[in-house]
Amino acid sequence: MDWRNVTAGDLIDALREVDWSSPPRPLSEFFSRFTVPRSYVKWNSRLKCNLYYYRTNYFIMIVLILGMGFLRRPLAIVAALLTALTVAFLNDSFAGTFSEKVTRTVRQFSPHLAAKMRPPLTPVIRGRPSTKRAIHICGQPRGVFVMIFSLVSFILWYISCGLLTLAWALAIGLLGTVLHASFRTPNLKARLNTFREEFRAVWHNYSELYL
């Protein structure tokens, strides 16, 4: 896969649709080999490849930096967790898994309420969905959950007086992510993983067209 032809929008869509449960890469691999890219084109390609391949490591690193910045402010730690959860809701796989587990837990206490939390059915015409299936969480559109959690986390940030600390923590986390992705040399595993994800995407599109 030629990462030079991948736009920022394509990368964001891939991160949104990718399986969220993939474990982080080992630290021995994460801090293995660093080199300076020889050109802007190579740097751009390396940055996109590493952002996709080490996505879980970067997410954990930013969450840890946020947690370390608010060790003396428990309310701010809750706000950081809600913010991380809000970002995780943007991933299709995480949103679907979260909704399924919550619904399954509620079903044990109230089957009637759990039935209302099921996502609406997508109309099917000639064996194929008539429209692209929208993501729902506990029976509600994903955007509703994102807005609610964003609002609550912002209020907690404001109450805990941690907005400035949040800005510094995010800046440090994002800077560390960009620096690592820029200088970490893509290894063979990253390239093989890219080809595997590309094959899965092609097979998924093939299945939708002919199954």
Automatic annotation (TrEMBL):
Location(s) in or outside the cell: Endomembrane system; Membrane
Whether Phosphoprotein counts among this entry's keywords is no
Task: Quote a single Gene Ontology cellular component term.
Answer: membrane
Residue ranges of the TM segments: 52-71, 77-98, 143-160, 166-183
Q: Which UniProt keywords apply?
A: Membrane, Transmembrane, Transmembrane helix, Transport
Q: How does it sit in the membrane?
A: Multi-pass membrane protein
Specify whether Transport is a keyword of the entry: yes
Q: Which domain of life does this protein belong to?
A: Eukaryota
Q: Name one GO biological process term.
A: vesicle-mediated transport
**InterPro entries named among the record's database cross-references:** Prenylated_rab_accept_PRA1
Could you say which protein family the record assigns here? Belongs to the PRA1 family.
Relate the protein's function as given in its record: May be involved in both secretory and endocytic intracellular trafficking in the endosomal/prevacuolar compartments.
In its UniProt entry, what is this protein called? PRA1 family protein
Q: From which source organism is this entry?
A: Rhizophora mucronata (Asiatic mangrove)
